[in-house]
Design a protein that fits this description.
The complex is a heterodimer. By secondary structure, chain A is an alpha/beta fold. Chain A has helices spanning about 5, 50-60, 80-85, 105-115, 120-125, 135-145, 165-175, 195-210, 220-225, 245-250, 250-260; strands at about 10-20, 25-35, 40-45, 65-70, 75, 90, 180-185, 215, 230-235, 240-245. Chain A has eleven helices and ten strands. Chain A is globular, with a radius of gyration of 19 Å.
């Protein structure tokens, strides 16, 4: 973590976030911060509350208690779309694509929402639907599609895309909004080893070149530990560990959560 | 007062039976039955046929019509329609049942003959015995209605709570997938539910016919009133639906004590009570952020539904050739046809403009608005009023009126969109009926059925010139729709339509995007309404009846709700085909086109694309096949779009 990030507010931060579903406590007073230009990993066994925390951070679920801050501003009550406009983007465990659009249109829409949002309204009266796309937009869409190896599929409808390709498209769409912080939910699921390595390299480049912060939830623990500056571990809605990948790897509480030591039975991996 | 309460409870009991039927089928099958009124009409008409026209004894006629014909109708409709809807998208479910509601009544009329001002008997022997307990007046029909509701509630409760069948139904409500995995056939349970639902529809139809009339309009009104109770019950709570239905009946009746029965106010307020109930509950739901039409079931059910929901493998990107060719053909029609047929074509083109609003809101936005015809009516009446009473030029009046109607669509959208597609359909149909009662029937507009005179521009008085003018305006509106579809707004609308969660996290507000489409569609509908008035040379409130609006939608989706040219073909077909049948075929076949339009919409259950898109795909397939025969090559995947 750089010295600057100590004084700069976190891109996104959860403070004492608690989520209850009736009598079930899904998250209990969880603290987590994603500093600028850093990669933060979030791991935990199935049912640990990772997806719930993602939903709270992205504004899809209101916490029962606690707060969420973006760049120091309290956004606990802000909608998902308001947070997106503040620079938050995310992907989903089950990709949320738009079957009526092509691969390229996903990226173009995301780009326009960030850079020429007014076109939602002005295109109607200026005949924007019949005009060629601006050069900047074309260039950005092409580069993102190329970076994620989607160029060959650019004009293909997204229905029927393999899971791995769908994930890459979600990431391309998320990057098209030039996010300040990107929440990635199981990004390598459905990718083979080579694709996973390429994705890791692309994400690392995004962080280095554009200062994007990443919060990564991933089944592939080695990928998380290899990419992250800081790793948080959840178990049954409680944060049981936080630290560098090496520290987390050696933490007895983490080993117990994953291997069941003290619980008498083996647990599912992250 | 007691007499009013007693009468109100009888009315409320009929509403309650109808609401119970709607809730049971919705929660157990996921299908909200917009054909309920049509099914009620079919059974009530069959009862009339047996009892009055054939002279059967009352108990036998009632048993055969309600106890046998009703359930048989339910089973038949399940076999040919409802079973295909189980895994379809909510929009296809709605449109297909609307298609059935359009096709079934004229089909029944074709078989049993059309009734004009028939006095429908209830289930009480004639003459109807009247009792006077505690000074209140209760007739035998009302007592039978109370008993009917009591039997329905007791039998329904016992069946659902204490029998094996009820257990299976409740399991089906919770999760169809898990029910199937436990060895129970969802299809077998569903067919039972639909049979029971049709029995209730028949019972409600027969009970309400003596007061509401044995007509499609009367049954549609019954259904719309039951919608209010169903909305209050958030589509699923049976006790709430029954309680609200009874309350509506009582309020409707009691309020008449304080109104002059001969007054215009009474004739407008009384039928509006259920809709005011709906509005109140709708506002309550919106304020409390409750409701929503999320289907029941767990993760497995959602996965199964997603697999079968008909999400497009790619929406067809049509070129300009076919639309231009169609425009050219329609443009030639006024040049070659005589004045009578040219007038019909002109009417069809005007109608096509109004149908373009459905293309926008349904084909693009994926929403079912059932009051586009009402917006068209507003546009027509306002434009005619401005032209006739204020001396405005007709075209300017049409344009300004359309702009004035837009806020109505915006407010309606703001109220309903966040509650979900099903609520939008329910509320917009109810709004249409309310507007018809409160606005269109006012003397100022209705004018004894003559409407308000709407002169054409002086340079377009003849049908030929007017048809070409209308076609030019249609082309402009069509280009506007194409521009929207290809623009950023179009991308946003498609995104919102297919994944609200994905859209929100991308920074897109669901309500603003959908309201944008609704506003544009309202404008287009109102322009279309203005041109319909110009075509008739009068703004006729009767031509903007919400039931006719259902037929509009059925025609459009039969042809195809996405292609702009689909609206043109649908409009011309709607205007011309009935006259073709009337001119060249026996008179009783006059309603056959409506039956065909309705069944066309029903066919969406199997082919969600509509006729144009389906045939275009088949032609492309044929082209690819011919190409592959000439030069074997890699077969490109065929885009297959869903209509709505």
């Amino acid at each position: 973590m750089s010295a600057a990030s100590v004084t700069t507010p976190a891109r996104i931060e959860a403070r004492g976030v608690t989520v209850r579903f009736g009598g079930l406590v899904a998250l209990s007073e969880v603290d987590l911060a994603v500093p600028p230009a850093s990669v933060v990993g979030l791991v935990g066994p199935n049912g640990a509350g990772k997806s719930t925390l993602f939903a709270v951070l992205s504004g899809l679920l209101a916490p029962s208690a606690g707060s969420v801050l973006m760049d120091g501003h309290d956004v606990t009550r802000a909608s998902a779309q308001a947070r997106a406009r503040r620079g938050l983007a995310r992907t989903f465990q089950h990709p949320e694509l738009f079957p009526g659009l092509t691969v390229r249109e996903h990226v173009v829409l995301a780009y326009r929402l960030r850079h020429t949002r007014h076109r939602i309204w002005t295109d109607l009266v200026t005949g924007g639907g019949f005009r060629r796309a601006p050069v900047d937009e074309e260039r950005r869409a092409d580069s993102l599609l190329a970076a994620l190896r989607l160029t060959d599929q650019a004009h293909r409808p997204v229905s029927g895309l393999p899971l791995g390709t769908s994930r890459l498209l979600e990431i391309a769409r998320a990057l098209a909004v030039d996010p300040g912080v990107l929440l990635l939910d199981e990004p390598s699921s459905g990718l083979d080893a080579r694709e996973t390595d390429e994705l890791a390299a692309t994400l690392t480049r995004v962080v280095a070149d554009h200062g994007v912060s990443l919060l990564l939830v991933e089944h592939d623990v080695e990928l998380v530990l290899g990419m992250s500056d800081v790793v948080h571990v959840l178990d049954f809605g409680v944060k049981i560990s936080e630290g560098s990948p090496a520290e987390v790897r050696e933490d007895p509480a983490v080993r117990a959560a994953y291997l069941g030591a003290g619980h008498g039975e083996e647990r599912t991996s992250a | 007062m007691l007499s009013y309460v007693v009468a109100g409870l009888a009315l409320g009991a009929v509403y309650a039976i109808a609401a119970a039927s709607l809730v049971v089928t919705h929660v157990s099958s996921g299908v909200f039955n917009f054909a309920f009124g049509a099914m009620a009409f079919a059974v009530a008409r069959f009862y009339y046929f047996l009892y009055v026209e054939q002279g059967w004894p009352l108990p036998l006629a009632a048993f055969v019509a309600i106890g046998l014909f009703g359930p048989a109708l339910g089973v038949l409709l399940y076999a040919v329609l409802f079973r295909h809807l189980r895994l379809r998208s909510p929009l296809v479910k709605i449109v297909a049942t609307i298609g059935l509601s359009v096709a079934l009544p004229p089909l029944v009329n074709l078989v049993f003959g059309q009734l004009v001002n028939a006095t429908a008997p209830g289930l009480a022997p004639q003459p109807v015995t009247v009792y006077r307990p505690f000074g209140a007046v209760v007739d035998m029909n009302q007592l039978i209605t109370y008993a009917g509701l009591a039997v329905v509630l007791i039998v329904g409760t016992v069946l659902l709570r204490y029998t094996d069948v009820g257990l299976k139904v409740r399991a089906l409500v919770d999760s169809e997938a898990l029910t199937a995995m436990s060895g129970v056939s969802p299809a077998r349970v569903s067919v039972g539910v639909w049979a029971f639902s049709a029995l209730l529809a028949g019972l409600a139809g027969v009970l309400v016919a003596p007061t509401a009339g044995l007509s499609v309009d009367g049954m549609t009104f019954l259904m719309a009133a039951a919608f209010a109770a169903v909305v209050a019950a958030r589509l699923r709570s049976l006790p709430t639906a029954v309680a609200v239905a009874l309350a509506m009946g009582v309020v409707t009746s009691v309020i008449q004590r304080y109104l002059d029965p001969e007054s215009a106010l009474a004739s407008q307020i009384v039928p509006s009570v259920p809709f005011l109930f709906m509005l109140a509950f709708l506002l309550a739901h919106a304020v409390r952020g409750r409701a929503g039409d999320a289907p029941a079931g767990g993760v497995l059910d959602r996965a199964v539904r997603a697999e079968h929901s008909g999400a497009p493998a790619g929406l067809p990107r049509s070129g300009f050739l076919a639309p231009l060719a169609t425009l050219a053909v329609v443009a030639c029609l006024p040049l070659v046809l005589d004045d009578f047929w040219t007038g019909l074509v002109a009417m069809g083109i005007a109608l096509a403009m109004a149908l373009l609003s459905c293309t926008l809101v349904t084909g693009e936005g994926g929403m079912i608005w059932l009051c586009q015809i009402t917006f068209a009516g507003f546009g027509a009446l306002l434009a005619a009023d401005l032209t006739t009473n204020s001396g405005w030029p007709p075209l300017a009046a049409v344009l300004v009126s359309a702009v004035c109607v837009v806020p109505v669509g915006v407010v309606l959208g703001l109220l309903t969109i966040r509650l979900g597609n099903l609520y939008v359909a329910l509320v917009t149909l109810t709004f249409g009926l309310l507007a018809q009662n409160l606005v269109f029937m006012r003397d100022r507009f209705y004018n004894s059925g003559q409407g308000i005179f709407m002169p054409r521009p002086e340079w377009a008085l003849d049908n030929r010139t007017f048809a070409l003018l209308a076609l030019a305006v249609f082309a402009v509106l069509g280009l506007f729709v194409v521009n929207l579809r290809r623009s950023t707004a179009g991308l946003a609308v498609t995104a919102v339509r297919w994944s609200e969660t994905g859209s929100r996290t991308l920074g897109l507000g669901i309500v603003p995007v959908k309201v944008l489409v609704s506003a544009v569609a309202t404008f287009v509908a109102a322009v279309g309404g203005g041109f319909v008035a110009l075509a008739y040379q009068s703004a006729l409130p009767d031509s903007f009846n919400p039931f006719t609006g259902l037929v509009w939608l059925a025609v459009l989706v039969t042809v195809g709700a996405r292609p702009v040219v689909g609206a043109l073909v649908a409009g011309v077909a709607f205007a011309v085909l009935p006259s073709v049948f009337q001119t060249y075929l026996p008179t009783r076949w006059a309603e056959v086109p409506v039956i065909l339009f309705g069944f066309g919409a029903v066919m969406l259950a199997r082919n969600p694309e509509g006729i144009i898109a389906m045939h275009a795909r088949q032609l492309r397939d044929l082209g690819h096949w011919l190409q592959s025969r000439r030069a074997p090559a890699e077969e490109p995947s065929t885009p297959q779009g869903e209509l709505v």
